[in-house]
Design brief:
The complex is a heterodimer of chains A (145) and B (840). Chain A is of the alpha/beta class and 145 residues long. Chain A is built from six helices and five strands, in the order αβαβαβαβαβα. Chain A has helices at residues 2-10, 23-35, 46-53, 76-86, 101-109, 122-144, and strands spanning 14-19, 38-43, 64-67, 92-96, 114-117. Chain B is an alpha+beta fold and 840 residues long. Classes of the chains: A alpha/beta (145), B alpha+beta (840). The interface between A and B is medium-sized, with 26 and 24 residues.
């Protein structure tokens, strides 16, 4: 772990978008992922997330998305559906405080890479996100090939 | 033939031609006078101033019985009874001295004395004249016996009529009648005998005599033993039905009272029957101290009076019978059988039968329920076959059935009593009840009887009265049956029913009420409600009775309330009993033992809450997991953190998260608590709604729903907090779900018509019209399987009504739904009730 962190300080491992309406939760995730070597972009709900990705002339490219489900305005479901159509290659990890089997199944079917239930430890979060970012890297490489 | 002692016409004879002519004329006149006197229908008598008879015509001879030769030259006094003679001499003397007679010029009525010594009434027209200084008298005498009789007859008739008209009873009239007849006809003593049918004798009813009799001599006459038919003068008249005359009772062979009559020196006697139609009711007899020869005119007149008296007795008897019937009807009690028995007895008594029976037919049996003097072995129920009563009923006629000479009829074979009791006559009147002939009232006689009109009427009246009693009996039976059925129904109602008057005393209690509240008493009627029910119920009952409008129809109900007693819970309701025509109101209470229901109800409420908690708990998971995530994240960050300030910040944040978790858990735990362990407390509805929103807000489906509130300042509602919370959690939860995470939730409270209202409105999908009637039904849900229990609104309704509230829903599909609950402010606490009663 220290190795990853260390590496992260030297070279950023990838860019992650964190979407959660609870600011404290969002901040903790940001701290954890930053420490692990990722560049983190925050959004407090689906609407903001979509706006963040579409700001500027060029779309902001992210390697992975960590997304809550129950959020005001555009909720996790809608946001995920949007991400899946606009950015089909970007792996999405769901982090929810309200675990439901039905919902988990439908999200996995929609192409979500993982479904995490709060509370989750820093290591587990970093591991899953690392896997997601790696997955995106592989996908990107294949695209370039 | 005219005989004169003096030739009064020859006293001034002349012999000249004129005198001759004069003599011729006189001769003609003389002849005319002779003819006139001899042919006159009245007696003509001439007498001189000494009262010596000078002239005596033929009619006089007939009238007095004297030939002219016998009386001419005799004094006038021989023509008059001795009592007039002195007066006559004085009158003659007066005429001789004054030349005037007081009797002259107008007819006077006097009595004449015949040669045979008998008297007769006469009318005398007296004339006097003078000739040659002498005074002469002429008398034209007419026998007025017949006229006198007619007068006597009229006077007697009038006197009898007046006596009968003025007397209420025959007993009162009897001696007056005898007196009137004696006074007018000149008889001296009279008796009236009446028939006593039971004993078949004549009994003395009255005696009257002229005051000239010493009463002691007559006692034996009056107190003579009653006469059987045919014995003595009264018995003879009774037997024959004809008047009878005895010139001298002392010489009569059939006169048992001869000794008494001899003591009283009685001789002449006659008697007439007192009768109505053919029926002899008594005898009137009259006596004289003189031997009297039969006088058919008098007998005829008295026979007429006998009929008049008989009719009077009959009329009085009818009146008396009606009075007795009336008396009998007035004495009626509740028991129809007893009344019928009395009527039967009255009928037998008034008609003087051997016995009387009233029987009603049932199938081919007759039930003798009314009896009077029936033989001791007369059965209470007997086969109708061959019985006269059965025929009377079968023929079903309103007029009396009369069967005479019973032993000669076929009934002698079919009815054993005809011969056994020597019955002769049967009178049977059919009794009608509700338009059907159901019974027969009969009177039987051992004599041959032909009922008179009054008897027929009497039986008709009594039969009608029995019919009325039968109808009443039937109506009572129907009423009793209906009452029994009602009682059976009320007894099978699984609720205790009590009815109390405004004195709060029980007037009705069904079986269950007696069982639950009777404290072992089999009857609660008359018990004070305060003794059998808790005080609060009694007081509320009083308030209800006072508040219920007099015009309220039956079934005006007051809402359910509850009380506990002996470990059981009773729910009760008041209902008004509008009793028409009664000013005293009555209130009914139905009390249901809801101990088990209540337990099940509480369980259901709890079950629904737990079921709905399932949904809420996922919200709680979110609420708990989020801070848990924070705590875990911060704790892990702290592990690597060297900067103590940052660590402290993290620790502070962790404390915050932990508190949050605590709040969430407490909220849910509070909500999940069993409500039946709570008491009622004063609640502000706005607070309850706000707390409910807090719970719902945690649920995953709350989404971005905006919450608006419009709370008016209101008095608190008395209720169980957990139950009210359950109401709002359900209503708000539904509202939020209906909006699918987006929309506006409006919570409002207000005071409307003495009700505290709280409304929950959403801008969701609304409820389809066809479903709105079912939403409060248990297990009705529009949610996906597993998402709702279908009990939410059912429980809401249950809780609201339990708190005497109401719930309303307005919904427009596509626009949203508003649920409004309303609770009464005028919550009657025991204090209020006391206040009310104090002002009553």
């Amino acid at each position: 772990m220290t190795l990853h962190m260390h590496e992260a300080t030297i070279d950023r491992l990838g860019r992650v978008l964190v979407v959660d309406d609870e600011e404290s939760i969002r901040k903790i995730a940001v701290r954890c992922l930053t420490k692990a070597g990722y560049e983190v972009v925050e959004a407090e709900n689906g609407e903001r997330a979509i706006a963040a990705l579409n700001s500027g002339d060029n779309p902001l490219m992210v390697d992975a998305i960590l997304c809550d489900i129950h959020m005001p305005k555009i909720n996790g479901h809608e946001a995920i559906a949007y991400f899946r159509t606009q950015y089909p290659g970007v792996p999405i990890v769901v982090l929810t405080g309200y675990p439901e089997v039905d919902r988990a199944v439908s999200l996995m079917r929609a192409g979500v890479m993982d479904y995490l239930v709060k509370p989750i430890s820093k290591d587990d979060l970093v591991t899953v996100m690392a896997k997601a970012v790696d997955g995106h890297e592989i996908l990107k490489d294949q695209t370039f090939v | 033939m005219l005989k004169c002692t003096h030739d009064i016409t020859a006293s001034e004879n002349g012999s000249s031609p004129a005198a001759n002519t004069h003599r011729d004329t006189e001769s003609v006149l003389q002849s005319f006078a002779n003819v006139l006197v001899e042919t006159a229908s009245d007696a003509i008598v001439l007498a001189d101033s000494q009262g010596t008879i000078m002239l005596w015509n033929k009619t006089a001879q007939h009238l007095f019985g004297y030939a002219a030769e016998e009386v001419v030259g005799q004094p006038l006094t021989c023509l008059m009874p001795a009592r007039y003679r002195e007066m006559h001499q004085k009158g003659l003397e007066r005429v001789r001295t004054s030349g005037h007679s007081r009797l002259a010029g107008k007819p006077v009525e006097l009595h004449g004395l015949r040669k045979d010594g008998t008297e007769f009434p006469l009318e005398l027209s007296l004339g006097t004249w003078q000739s040659g200084g002498n005074i002469f008298f002429s008398g034209i005498i007419r026998d007025i016996t017949e006229r006198k009789r007619v007068e006597e007859f009229h006077r007697t008739q009038v006197a009898v009529s007046m006596i009968l008209a003025s007397c209420d009873s025959f007993g009162q009239a009897a001696s007056q009648l005898i007196q009137a007849v004696c006074d007018i006809t000149g008889w001296e003593l009279g008796l009236i005998w009446l028939v006593d049918r039971d004993a078949a004798v004549l009994r003395c009813e009255a005696l009257w005599h002229q005051p000239t009799f010493p009463g002691s001599e007559l006692t034996a006459l009056k107190e003579h033993p009653p006469f059987p038919s045919g014995i003595g003068l009264p018995g003879r008249i009774w037997a024959s039905g004809e008047p009878a005359w005895v010139p001298d009772v002392l010489k009569d062979l059939n006169f048992p009272r001869a000794q008494a009559a001899a003591n009283a020196r009685l001789h002449g006697a006659f008697g007439v029957p007192i009768r109505s139609g053919r029926r002899i009711m008594g005898v009137m007899e009259f006596f004289s101290r003189e031997i009297r020869q039969p006088d058919t005119t008098l007998l005829q007149m008295m026979a007429d009076i006998g009929i008049k008296v008989g009719q009077f007795i009959e009329r009085k008897k009818d009146t008396e019978r009606l009075r007795k019937i009336n008396e009998c009807l007035l004495s009626f009690g509740k028991d129809a059988h007893e009344n019928i028995n009395r009527l039967t007895a009255l009928c037998g008594e008034l008609l003087g039968g051997a016995w009387a029976v009233y029987s009603y037919a049932e199938g081919d049996l007759l039930h003798a329920i009314g009896r009077w003097r029936t033989p001791s072995d007369f059965p209470p129920v007997y086969k109708s076959n061959g019985h006269l009563c059965a025929d009377v009923i079968r023929q079903g006629r309103d007029d009396l059935m009369v069967v005479r000479h019973l032993p000669a009829t076929s009934y002698a074979q079919t009815d054993p009593y005809v011969l056994a009791c020597r019955l002769q006559t049967y009178l049977g009147q059919a009794v009608r009840c509700n338009g059907r002939y159901i019974g027969s009232l009969c009177v039987v006689y051992q004599q041959d009887i032909l009922p008179r009109e009054g008897d027929r009427r009497l039986m008709g009246i009594i039969a009608s009265a029995i019919g009325v009693e039968e109808e009443r009996k039937q109506a009572e039976r129907a009423l009793q049956q209906s009452y029994d059925e009602t009682e059976k129904i009320l007894a099978s109602v699984p609720g205790a029913i009590l009815v109390a008057g405004d004195d709060l005393r029980v007037v009705y209690a069904n079986a269950l009420a007696c069982q639950h509240f009777g404290e072992g008493r089999p009857e609660m009627i008359g018990a004070s409600m305060a003794d059998v029910l808790p005080e609060e119920v009694t007081q509320r009952s009083w308030v209800f009775m006072r508040r219920t409008p007099q015009t309220a129809e039956n079934g005006y109900w007051q809402q359910d309330r509850q009380f506990e007693r002996h470990g059981k819970v009773y729910e009760y309701r008041f209902f008004s009993l509008a009793i028409r025509g009664s000013e005293r109101p009555q209130t009914g209470i139905v009390l249901w033992d809801i101990t088990e229901n209540k337990r099940l109800g509480e369980q259901l409420i709890q079950a629904e809450k737990l079921a709905s908690l399932g949904t809420l708990v996922s919200g709680m998971a979110h609420e708990v997991n989020n801070p848990a995530q924070g705590i875990m994240g911060l704790a892990q960050l702290m592990q690597d953190e060297t900067d103590l300030t940052v660590v402290r910040d993290y620790a502070r944040e962790i404390v915050g998260y932990t508190k949050h978790i605590g709040t969430v858990v407490r909220d849910f735990a509070t909500y999940a608590r069993r409500s039946d362990r709570d008491g009622e407390s004063e609640l502000a509805l706005s607070e309850r709604m706000t707390d409910a929103v807090k719970l719902i807000r945690r649920s995953p489906y709350f989404g971005t729903v905006e919450v608006e509130t419009d709370f008016q300042p209101l008095p608190p509602v008395q209720a169980r907090r957990t139950e009210i919370d359950q109401v709002f959690v359900n209503l708000i939860g539904n509202a939020v779900q209906a909006m699918n995470g987006k929309g506006r939730l409006t919570l409002a409270t207000a005071l409307r018509d003495d009700m505290i209202t709280a409304s929950v409105s959403d801008t969701g999908s609304g409820i389809p019209k066809e479903q709105i009637g079912k939403i409060f039904d248990p297990f009705f849900t529009t949610k996906d399987p597993g998402k709702g229990t279908g009990l939410g609104l059912y429980i809401v309704h249950k809780i609201v009504t339990k708190h005497r509230g109401q719930i309303q829903v307005e919904s427009e599909p596509g626009k949203g739904t508003t649920f409004t609950v309303a609770f009464p402010t005028g919550h009657i606490s025991p204090k209020e009730v006391r206040h009310d009663t104090a002002h009553a």
